[in-house]
Amino acid sequence: MTKAELVAIMAKNAGGSKTSAERAMNAMGNGRDPRTGRQIQIPTVKVPRFRPSRTLKTAIR
Length: 61
What we know:
The protein is mainly α. Helices cover about 50% and strands about 10% of the residues.
């Protein structure tokens, strides 16, 4: 799923515009430091994914 597809789905479900959905999505990367209350940028991370091979899929079925 691309960022544009996610923004379109968010706008459709919320009943708003794509522009407001994109602003909301960009705000998701921001957070607050609980000690100071200052706004901080939360870095994006890559999460490893497990993709089973064709052999494993056929063995399970």
